[in-house]
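Quick one, tokens below:
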């Protein structure tokens, strides 16, 4: 078994893997390059020159700040809602047995499996029927539908790997429900919740399709970028903003990966 693990991958597999990675990530590198170009109306290659002036231009654009503020606000609230609802759903499904448990689990994860345009149309129709005006809260409701799923998947997996004997021992020693949650359950599921929250924030921050149907006249940062590409004005500004989106979404995902890669070391998981 150890000898098999030490075998080197075939050259063809290495070439295919490298080609796949380049295909995925070269376009992202081009976004970074065009953020420094001196050309403001087209994406000529190679860029005629390089400058950092577009960072100052972006900094002084009030529409960029308005869109960024709205995106951060929506992502933060959606993540908070997802952490509460996702954790409660995960605890109910993993720690108790009741009729229809698997059906409820399916219904919870269904929104992330549905195409975003279906979710968007459904939400827009519901808001219209209920005569709910479009606002920040309608965007939050739309984003929460899939953010809950991310938190739920992380939490339910961790709950199932946490031994029920820990909770029973805590109760036997006189701890009440809150003390058991704070000192026993939360330390075991904390990293899973943090990772789920980070992933939920990243998904909400760069969401486009559902936002299009629930935002009305408001513009989150991805919607602002889309409209800037349709009606170009200072194209490199869009690339500077795209760099921000890449960093804001990449860092939480990277942190979530490092937080959950040692998730097999759960207290009581082997009992």
């Amino acid at each position: 078994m150890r000898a098999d693990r030490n075998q080197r991958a075939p050259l063809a597999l290495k070439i295919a893997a490298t080609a796949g990675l380049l295909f995925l990530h070269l376009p992202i590198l081009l976004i970074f390059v065009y953020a420094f170009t001196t050309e403001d109306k087209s994406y000529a290659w190679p860029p005629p020159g390089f400058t950092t002036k577009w960072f100052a231009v972006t900094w002084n654009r009030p529409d960029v700040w308005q869109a960024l503020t709205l995106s951060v606000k929506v992502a933060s609230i959606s993540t908070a809602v997802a952490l509460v609802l996702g954790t409660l759903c995960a605890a109910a499904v993993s720690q108790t047995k009741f009729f229809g448990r698997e059906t409820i689990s399916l219904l919870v994860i269904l929104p992330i499996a549905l195409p975003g345009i279906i979710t968007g149309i459904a939400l827009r129709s519901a808001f219209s029927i209920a005569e709910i005006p479009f606002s920040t809260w309608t965007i939050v409701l739309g984003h929460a539908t899939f953010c809950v799923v991310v938190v739920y998947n992380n939490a339910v997996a961790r709950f199932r790997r946490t031994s029920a004997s820990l909770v029973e021992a805590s109760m036997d020693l006189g701890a009440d429900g809150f003390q058991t949650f704070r000192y026993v359950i939360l330390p075991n599921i904390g990293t899973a919740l943090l990772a789920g929250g980070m992933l939920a924030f990243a998904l909400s921050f760069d969401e486009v399709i559902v936002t299009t149907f629930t935002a009305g006249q408001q513009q989150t940062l991805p919607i602002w970028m889309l409209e800037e590409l349709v009606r170009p004005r200072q194209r490199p500004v869009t690339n500077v903003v795209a760099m921000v989106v890449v960093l804001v979404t990449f860092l939480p995902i990277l942190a979530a990966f490092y937080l959950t890669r040692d998730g097999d070391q759960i207290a009581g998981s082997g009992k």
